[in-house]
């Protein structure tokens, strides 16, 4: 290296130091992550609701009969809502799972009634529900990309209609990032949390 030894730390990977996080973020990383996750979720739904309102306004027939009305080439239907609803349901399922249940070995739990899952481990069911939640979110993102492609990009539409599909993809991407951020934020221990066991 051409730098003198005193000007860099040999344990570092990068020579250029990354900026330090502000002090208010360093002291409350967990709360900041939760709030940022909520903001991402709201931003995703805001994009989609914006596209829905624009679609509704374009479909509105003018009250004045002298104004010519041309119906829109396409508009948002229930098929556009399904990917966002699947992603939101997946977010709820993923964040209802306690991370501790994913690592419990040999923990037994019975749903009552004595049949079916009695005697099975909680870990297996927690992993199953985690898989279902992420599958719902991945299906929502794939569905939104499919709707964008099939409904808004393949057919010839006038300028501006592709925003409906792009808003749907942005919504599902924000929901996925929000879920991962919330999962990581909620399952980290805060500075003031103590686990007391007897």
TrEMBL record:
A GO cellular-component term linked to this record: membrane
Keyword Membrane: yes
Keywords: Membrane, Transmembrane, Transmembrane helix
Main location per the UniProt record: membrane
Matches recorded under Pfam families: UPF0220
Compartments it resides in: Membrane
Record field: transmembrane: 32-53, 128-154, 166-184
Nucleus among keywords: no
UniProt membrane topology term: Multi-pass membrane protein
InterPro entries in UniProt: UPF0220 (IPR007919)
Family: Belongs to the UPF0220 family.
Name of this chain's protein: Putative membrane protein
